[in-house]
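Anyone opening a protein record will find just a pair of labelled lines. The record below illustrates this layout.
***
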Amino acid sequence: MVIKNKGEHIFPENTLEILSNTKAQPLNKKYTFQADPFIIDKDNHLYIFYEAFSFRNSKGILRCRILNSDMLEISDVKLKGFDDLHCHLSFPFLFHLDGKLFMIPESSERKEIILFQSVDFPARWEKVKVLVSDMAVTDNVIFELEGIYYLVSTTMDYEMTIHTADNIFGEWKMISPTLDVCNYHHRSAGTPYSINNKTYIFTQECNPNEYGKSIYIKELIKLTSQDYEEKLIGKINPNINNSDGIHTINFTDNYIVYDTKRVIFSLLSPLKKLSYKIMVKYRNRRFT
């Protein structure tokens, strides 16, 4: 879902108001699931990087949907440079550094956190470095505080993990600060955002029986190797567009993009779920 806000969005003051009162345009549905949208607003075009999932192979791939300034979809490209990973990919977290564009996709099946760099925008990417190995984690985000880089991830049991480094390409070390959290929904739901000397993070409400229900907006009060403290600022509920869930949100000065879900009964669901479990088990064996 995409909202063109023409620079009227001031985070976090009117974020919930815009989401609730502005009509969002859905992307054309081309795959079983289209999720985890990240965006680049460039040269009068909007580039939406996302996970495309189909039950044909029960594996997510990364694509980019391109819209013009009139919000018309003009192209959809598969991202190149990731096929050698042979795993499910999602959550294409993007960030700029020194004028270059980087991505860290979720590749938990490989038990690796891998950094990629854009070499031919938007389609072609190149592997730069394995930042963390021997760890199955999801939805990785990076941000910087007082000269220290933090890499925040979530285990398959929804436990938060934090690594630090002096620079992106350096050695990443895990830290275990004492957690002072506003809730236990830690899984990332978008790019951290800093404004007015404050850093905000977005996390998914993921209960055992309900994945991707809503999004929490939290202010990061303190983060060091000893202490982690956060404060709840707001909650984005699925009723903003009468859906059954929302679990990733990102924005630029002119656009807000988020994913949404609707629960639909299907007689084929049990077979699809069984096929998915078999394919995942097969791929996990490959990486063991």
Notes: The chain is about 10% helix and 50% strand. The mean pLDDT is 94. Residues 149 and 167 are 6 Å apart (CA to CA).
